[in-house]
Write a structure and sequence with these properties.
Strand order of the largest sheet: 1-2
Structural class: alpha+beta
Distance between the termini: 32 Å
Order of helices and strands: HEE
Largest sheet: 2 strands, antiparallel
């Protein structure tokens, strides 16, 4: 993935996570009244569950390969 362009949001997130892993990086997402509708399936008649996010999600990475055992 290092040489390719991300083609979706998950690909972009994975690429960012891969790049930051091992660098003691922290990724922080803040949401204010974000509404996400999750479909029950992929058909046009799918029902949707609504998730509402209001706050902060933090993802921390750390390289443990150099930690003393």
């Amino acid at each position: 993935m290092a040489d390719s362009q991300p083609i979706s949001w998950p690909d972009l997130a994975i690429g960012l996570y891969d790049r930051l892993t091992g660098r003691q990086a922290e990724i922080s997402y803040e949401f204010e009244d974000l509404h996400v509708k999750i479909p029950s399936d992929t058909t046009e008649t799918a029902q949707h569950a609504e998730w509402i996010l209001d706050g902060c999600i933090k993802i921390k990475t750390r390289d443990t390969s150099n930690d003393p055992k």
